[in-house]
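Exercise: predict the structure of this protein bound to dinuclear copper ion.
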Amino acid sequence: MSAGLTLLPPSASAAARGTDALFLTLVGLSALLTCIFVGLIVIFCYRYRRSARINRDNPPSHARGLEAAWTIAPLLLFLVLFAWAARDYAVQSRPPKDAMQIFVVAKQWMWKAEQPNGRREINEIHIPVNTPVKLIMTSQDVIHSLFVPAFRNKRDVVPGRYSTIWFLADRAGEYLLLCAEYCGTDHAEMKGRVIAMQPEDYARWLEDGATHPGLAERGFRLFREHGCMGCHAAASTVHAPELSGLLGRRVHLSDGRNLIADENYVHDSIMEPQKDVVAGYDPIMPSFKGQLDEEEIMAIIEYIRALNPDQTTGERR
Ligand code: CUA
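Solution:
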């Protein structure tokens, strides 16, 4: 590593090193071009200074080849940079299908995370190294933004919808976790740590924690307590859509639209049931606005996902 890299935060993933390579290339190119242009200005200032005896009446020449070259060369250069950046961006925005899922709820002013086995943490997210990890995130109040400089990855966390971010840490260690969206008085204090551990250590850590019922199990309890069963159970006499295998499935709506049922769709169906009514059903579902908070809705979504464990979630953008 060259000395210049100490100006950058530590990097703990291949994606971070890719981002650095792109960034440093852009800095290098900018520096090179700046040197060329400033150098030419200085040389011409000297050469054509007032007292210089130099022929000043030579007409501009039309060197077609030269003009074409300085137009086409930067164009090609920019296209290469675009393709490079677009490829990295595409990789970073699409989590692998087998990524481990951790749920994150942001609120003023803390990060709450829930591990796959239900272990919960605040302002800390433990992850195993060399494993793709996907965070499914939502906010309980205002817009936050989850930022882990060591992974060079950042995503807004928005109330009322789910956003995802993923990373594959390849070095164990502790990395800063920041909020990168001004969210009120203690925005600057809304920070924590991502702790990347060897998979064995992570597994041990996971088992050591206080055991909570997993998200899906809590979701089942909420599903029962709020009377969802009354309509959505198979034996129900009320005509309501079947929920098993829902996540990732294409849903046809009564107004002719169709969409892939993802976390945002389920969330909205609970909070604003009249928004996307499934074709063939009456708009009779009541809204649960004010009765369920974001964490509870996450739990219910996990319960619905667990109804069909084979189903991979439809990735939404
Ligand atoms: Cu949360 Cu800034």
